[in-house]
Amino acid sequence: MSQTLIRRLFNQACSRNIFILNQSLLSSHEPILPGYIGLRNTSFFNKLPAEDIWRGVTAVSNAGKKRGRGKGSGKKVAKDLNKGQSIGFGKCGRIWPGLNSPLIRGNELINQQKLNENLDRENGILKLRDSMGSFKLMKLNPIDRGWSGSKMPGRSIGPPDPVGDEEFVSFDTRVLENKIVFIMKGNMGRKRRYSVLSVTGNGNGLAGFATAKAPEVRTALRKSKNRAGQKLINISLCENRTIFHDFRTDFGKTKIFCFQKPDGYGLVCHRAIQTICKVIGIKDLYAKIEGSTNIQNIAKAFFIGLMTQRSYQYIANETNSNIVQLQKTRNRFIDVKGMPFPNSTLTQNTQEIDYMHFTLGNQIVLQRKGTVPFYVYSKGHDLHQFKKERFRNQVNVRLHKLVNAYD
After folding, report:
1. Which of 45, 273, 346, 354 could, after both became Cys, cross-link 320 (CB 3.0–4.6 A)?
2. 19, 35, 39, 129 from 32: Cα distances, Å
3. 270: nearest Cα among 255, 260, 281
């Protein structure tokens, strides 16, 4: 190989940052092998700081928030990976004079030396990192929990703030609705706010509800709670536990049919109506909603129905008739609920008035017929009915015999 060709190859190797390990290779006829290869140690993780990388994991874009993404983003917590570590102390324990140890100790110069591996340090750092991302949730009493998980609807936010020296004693406020609404501003564009609907009451017939909006959730909750305390309504209750009569009420596209129930029945209705009944003091009620289940419409329609109900005495004076209830639990015992005033100018009604039709405005609630089982018209069912016919009144006869035995 000529000297000119060797020099040309040497210049190309130097221009490409190739380090020649052995100079004797220049005089041989073997190919030149590189001893050093340049690497580009740049990536996404060392271009950006740790804050930006964690923000890409934990944050959600505005477009994603509008589409409902990122509801669990609050559970992801950014970890500070530098905690528990010091400069100069790594996995392989080594003394670096001037970095993690002094240069001179007494009259001796400290040399670089390797230390034994410290496994406790690595385990401590890993344990510290695991404790960063996890947090212990506060345990709530099942009565204090909301309708669904840890969301605000259904949860208590305490009584309204006192006005002067007047305090809202024995009042409790419950959240019915908590949602995000947007409004378009000319100078700020799309502005986000929180809308909160809450109801407050003392459990004895005094209650009110209100809606409030604010840029922050806490502010909206406080405004809604205090505003509901300023709009209290006195609601009359029958026997301090239920409504006076069945009624139908509506607001917008929402219709509610409410029915009076005996003591111990409970609240069988929509969860929003259940929450309203608890703060008012209603314990026994059945309510059926038809149409829209918008929370604000439900609250408005139910309060309208409670305010328009009439007491037994008012109905007796209006119809000039005695209001009588036949109690099934007491063998149809007649219980007089209301009597008209003696000096009433209305004529006495000779015909019997249907109390339910009168309270519902001469309307009848549609009762859907149940589906007939497939075996009703079969021969086997007819045979079963024929065999059971002789025992059809046996339970009542046995009960009467037991009652008469103690007379």
Report:
1. 346
2. 10, 9, 20, 49
3. 255
Domain residue ranges of the chain, discontinuous segments joined by +: 1-62, 89-132, 172-234
- Residue 229 has a CB neighbour count (10 Å cut-off) of 22
- 3-state class (DSSP) for residue 9: helix
CA angle 295, 256, 359 (to 5 degrees): 145
3-state secondary structure of 156: strand
How many C-beta neighbours within 10 Å does residue 184 have? Answer: 8
Cα separation of 323 and 80, whole Å? 75
Q: Could you tell me which of 365, 255, 277 has the C-alpha nearest to residue 269?
A: 277
pTM for the whole structure = 0.65
DSSP 95-154: E-BTTTB-SEETTEEPPPEE----HHHHHHHHHHHHHHH--PPPP--TTT--SSTT-STT
pLDDT tens figures, 380-402: 999 999 999 999 989 888 888 88
Thinking of the domain 172-234, which architecture would CATH place it in? 2-Layer Sandwich (3.30)
Per-residue pLDDT tens over the stretch 97-151: 888 788 888 788 888 888 777 778 888 888 888 877 666 667 778 877 899 887 8
User: Residue 171's closest CA among 236, 226, 240?
Assistant: 226
